[in-house]
# Entry
Amino acid sequence: MQLFDSTEGIRSAVLENKKQGKTIGLVPTMGALHEGHLSLVRAARTCDVVIVSIFVNPRQFTNERDLKEYPRKLDGDLAILKGKCDLVFAPGINDIYGNSPVSSLDFGDLGSRLEGEFRPGHFNGVGLIVAKLFNIILPDYAYFGLKDLQQYLLIKQLVKDLSFPIKIIGCTTIREESGLAMSSRNLKLSEKGIAVASKIFEGLNIVKEGFDSGESIDNCRKRAAKYYERINGLEIEYLEFASEDLTILNDLNGAKEISVCIAAYVEGVRLIDNLYLRQ
Ligand code: AMP
# Structure
């Protein structure tokens, strides 16, 4: 496994591999790696060369403190990745943003709902870093977790809109035994906080039970509210039902796919999750 901290270095390594006709798979991450990230790395193993990028992207943070406190564990991450991927790209901030880009990517409605509503500007930053990584690394395939469903849909749109010759692969959410979606942010929770956070997924399953038994979206919403209001220490930011293009649903409205998406705070840590009700 080779580590690169500069755009030039990774690019020449990639070009060398491409010259030999090898396919390149990219797994973009912000580090503090866990099994969720590793599931993406495993999925990427169908490519000849697997590249993991590790970069805490300041442009996608909407809160200074969140950025400052985001877990950074490069040495541990490299130890975890050893033997599992071929190249790691862990650039410094100046290498990525030294030229102080002024461009930003606007994803329209897709970027302004759900996460976009509560974290304005977040997806502009995500779009910018992902577009940069795509241009630096020129992967054939890039792997994203469905835990960040809106991000995944948005990246697929980005690839279509900007004609990147890259196939985007969505990977299922990896969970703790309790059902809690794995997240680097879970590291900031106490044991008690983890128990509270695990209720997030339990609530989504309760919604699904209602949905599967034919309840309306409105009733499913009420069911969720009733369940979550009993849980001390859990503060729901949003709970929405969304169609395949993330249109917010108040009734089934002929939607092909339906997911329930949630953002919640536990011990001041913001967590997101989702569950497909119909796929
Ligand atoms: P992050 O480091 O949080 O930016 O995540 C990097 C990638 O890993 C993103 O595509 C995430 O959607 C994905 N990811 C994060 N947590 C999980 C999880 N629990 N299961 C599957 N993928 C995940």
